């Protein structure tokens, strides 16, 4: 509740200054009465996990599915639909979908306003850390993006920033995180307007190290030595310590969760839990299944207006490779509902799909599982088995933060871990399959770690109308507008990294 109240207070404060940010090229520093912490909190709030990430990233890794095309086109049909591939760019970089208040623009403004202000040193370094998070998502999604000149049009006058090589961006993200961690100082002003930690410096340092670990593990195929060095530094520095350190935005009935809106409004009869995800949870008798997935008697109605089947054995995921005209021919088709939808399992709208539920960006569970992999590879001196168990248990315990009814009893957690023990021979598969589960609803992170690790092993979606030649989508495509508005820099990026299509790999994604 405390975080909700803080969120409401920050959003209310920002309503008075939205007019000062109507254009990405407007100078935010002109409004001298705006405390930069409000820009920072708005950047946090606007780091949106957009609904379209369910059509691409979450569908690529086969967690969420829909048989429909049109505005729902994505990895379900393995087609390039740029109205949906562009959303991370529009929300996080240009800010077009955030009233021109994208986090990159706002964080760049905060950095500009606070870099010479010794009294706001913590706000400066917190902004560096969160900016690194946002840029990692952008690079992981698209590859080369504007970075060194990004968000600086009002400072430098450069409205057409060049795209920077993705490997160079990653290298600078490491420098930014290391510098920010070192610069945070608990003796300086505590920035209580921070939506994540209310300015707690120790927690921000842990987040910095956790992001350093996440970045480091992305190098596991391309530069194992660098991956090891960064994993060691993060582990020794101190990463997230419990679920209390989870990085999240807690929404409310007024400021609602974008994904919650997706599950509960116009698309509620159109989206289903993917068959591979349901099958994996069922195969391991995972108690998270009935927290995440239910079958509604009439998917087009609200939960209180229809029957809800929470029975573990009755959950059926929607298979990939079909559209709304062919899904009826899928094996073991459970039937169509006359009022709209199908009898497949859907997101539980009273737990993980609530409109006032939280969004998670970086979690203790994810971090422990990355450490487990580092330990399994011999990169840190720790027990991979213990870290694996801690990570799995952390995600199961995280469920109660969606709703009290989602609480998984400790006895159920203990029974699961006893029945699914860590085995070194299958360590990478077990760890990264659990990371896949722990990243459910964070499509960009689930997609990135699946590409990096190769786990879980998924069966390619061979939809007949697909436009990709290979088995899986490997990156998303830039907004079409970039081809004309910033043509020279766009073309240079494409020439450098490869075609602007769904199959060009980002630099760390090696076969």
From TrEMBL:
Pfam families: SusD-like_2. Keywords: Lipoprotein. Transmembrane segments: none annotated. It comes from the Bacteria. This is SusD/RagB family nutrient-binding outer membrane lipoprotein.
């Amino acid at each position: 509740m405390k975080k909700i109240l803080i969120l409401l207070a920050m959003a209310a404060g920002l309503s008075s200054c939205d007019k000062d940010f109507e254009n990405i090229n407007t100078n935010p520093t002109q409004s001298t009465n705006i405390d930069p912490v409000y820009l920072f909190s708005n950047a946090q709030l606007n780091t949106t996990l957009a609904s379209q990430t369910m059509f691409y990233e979450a569908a690529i890794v086969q967690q969420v599915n829909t048989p429909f095309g049109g505005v729902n086109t994505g990895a379900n049909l393995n087609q390039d639909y740029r109205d949906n591939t562009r959303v991370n760019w529009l929300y996080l970089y240009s800010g077009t979908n955030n009233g021109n208040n994208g986090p990159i623009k706002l964080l760049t403004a905060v950095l500009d306003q606070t870099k010479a202000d010794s009294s706001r040193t913590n706000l400066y370094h917190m902004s560096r850390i969160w900016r690194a998070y946002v840029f990692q998502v952008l690079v992981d999604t698209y590859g080369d993006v504007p970075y060194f000149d990004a968000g600086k049009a009002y400072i430098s006058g450069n409205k057409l920033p060049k795209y920077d090589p993705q490997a160079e961006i990653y290298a600078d993200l490491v420098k930014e995180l290391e510098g920010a961690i070192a610069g945070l100082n608990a003796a300086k002003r505590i920035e209580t307007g921070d939506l994540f930690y209310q300015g707690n410096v120790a927690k921000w340092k842990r987040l910095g190290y956790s992001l350093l670990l996440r970045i480091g593990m992305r190098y596991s195929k391309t530069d194992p030595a660098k991956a090891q060095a960064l994993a060691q530094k993060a582990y020794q520095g101190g990463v997230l310590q419990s679920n209390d350190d989870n990085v999240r935005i807690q929404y409310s009935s007024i400021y609602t969760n974008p994904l919650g809106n997706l599950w509960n409004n116009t698309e509620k009869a159109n989206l289903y839990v993917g068959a591979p995800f349901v099958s994996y949870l069922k195969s391991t008798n995972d108690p998270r299944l009935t927290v995440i997935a239910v079958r509604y008697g009439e998917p087009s109605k609200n939960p209180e207006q229809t029957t809800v089947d929470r029975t573990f054995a009755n959950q059926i995921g929607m298979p990939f490779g079909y559209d709304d005209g062919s899904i009826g021919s899928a094996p073991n088709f459970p039937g169509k509902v006359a009022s709209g939808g199908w009898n497949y399992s859907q997101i539980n709208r009273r737990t993980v799909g609530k409109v006032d539920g939280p969004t998670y960006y970086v979690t203790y569970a994810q971090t422990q599982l990355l450490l487990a992999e580092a330990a399994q590879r011999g990169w840190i001196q720790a027990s991979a088995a213990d870290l694996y168990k801690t990570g799995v248990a952390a995600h199961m315990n995280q469920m109660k933060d969606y709703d009290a009814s989602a609480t998984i009893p400790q006895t159920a957690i203990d029974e699961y871990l006893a029945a699914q023990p860590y085995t070194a021979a299958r360590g990478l598969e077990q760890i990264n399959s659990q990371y896949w589960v722990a990243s459910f609803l964070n499509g960009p992170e689930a997609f990135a770690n699946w590409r990096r690790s190769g786990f879980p092993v998924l069966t390619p979606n061979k939809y007949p109308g697909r436009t990709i030649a290979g088995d899986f989508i490997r990156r998303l495509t830039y907004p079409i507008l970039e081809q004309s508005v910033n043509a020279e820099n766009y073309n240079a990026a494409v020439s450098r990294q490869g075609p602007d299509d769904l199959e060009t790999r980002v630099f760390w994604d090696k076969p």
